[in-house]
Every structure is written in C-alpha cells, then in structure tokens.
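In response to the reviewer comment on reproducibility (Comment 2.3), we provide here a single inverse folding case reported in full, input and output, so that an independent group could reproduce the run without further information from us. The structure tokens appear first.
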C-alpha cells in the first residue's frame, strides 16, 4: 500500500478544494484525476464525452487512475472524479493503494454549489437548461447518489461534518489514516 489519500464523492463535494488543503497540511503532492485525464487526452472532459461517450471517458479515467496509483514516489492526495470508484474495479485500486475519504455533502448544499456551473459537467449538463434548474439538478444528484452510494459507502472514512482541514484531519486520524507511512 502506498498510503495515498483518495477523495471520493459527488460532483461539488469539495474533492479538489479540500484535497489541495489536505495536501498542503500533510506536505504531499496534490493531483486531480480529471486534470490528468485532460492533459493526457489533449482536450476537455466535455470534448471527450462528445467524441467517445461516457464509456470512452471511463476507460481513460481507469487508465489515469492506475497510472497514479502505481507510480513510484511519495504518497499523494488525489481528488477523483465523482464516478471514479464506480467503474472498472477502480474502487479496489483505490482501496489497495491508499485510504479513501468520502466527502458526503447534503444534496441541497451540492445544488447551491453547482447550480451555476452544471453545464460544464457532462453528466449534469442537461439540468441547466431546465425550467427549474435547481429542482432538476437536485433530482439528477439524487439519482446519481442512489446509483453510487454502494461504492462510496465502502470508503475507509465517510466525512459528513464540517469541511475544515482540522475537522477532516482529526476524523482521518481517528479512522486510522497514518500520513507518515510510505
């Protein structure tokens, strides 16, 4: 086990924002899996979805995850995509090579965070054009959570509390995460 710290959760749950803060706290490299996918593909995630569909994107995602998980070097903090643990046995890769942290944010808060930017997220794109985008977004996120919860619930730690670094690092320590291990 490389002792990476992997953040999982729905879109808008703060994986990138919290991931950067945790990486700084633990003095680790931070990576965002979506950024790695875009760099490798040479185009945006919406462009990947348009050209290859979700199936093509998920294959790229699995390849990028395995590249990060099997790399040599010190442990890092990785923000995954919302669906990463749900496809291609990625959850097993995450659990075998690190500690998984599910950032479980209430749906109304996710809607508040995402309502302005949902058109840039391929799986939420249709909600922005709805007559009531907040309601459509809530319903889409609710369906997405129902499909993904079985994967998210297998994380080493579910954090549903305050999203401060102090609260999360305390919860991680209590759950057995040891950041100094390599």
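Designed residues, in position order:
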């Amino acid at each position: 086990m490389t002792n990476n710290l992997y953040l999982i959760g729905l879109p808008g749950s703060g994986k990138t924002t919290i991931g950067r803060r945790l990486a700084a706290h633990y003095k680790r490299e931070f990576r965002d899996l979506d950024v790695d996918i875009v760099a490798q593909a040479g185009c945006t995630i919406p462009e990947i979805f348009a050209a290859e569909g979700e199936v093509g994107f998920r294959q790229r995602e699995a390849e990028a995850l395995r590249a990060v998980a099997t790399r040599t070097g010190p442990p890092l903090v990785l923000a995954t995509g919302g669906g990463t643990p749900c496809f291609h046995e990625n959850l097993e890769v995450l659990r075998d090579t690190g500690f998984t942290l599910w950032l479980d944010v209430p749906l109304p808060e996710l809607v508040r965070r995402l309502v302005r930017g949902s058109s840039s997220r391929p799986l939420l794109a249709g909600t922005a054009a709805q007559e009531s985008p907040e309601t459509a977004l809530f319903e889409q996120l609710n369906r997405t959570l129902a499909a993904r919860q079985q994967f998210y619930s297998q994380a080493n730690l579910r954090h549903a509390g305050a999203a401060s670094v102090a609260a999360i690092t305390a919860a991680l320590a209590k759950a057995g995460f040891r950041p100094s291990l390599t």
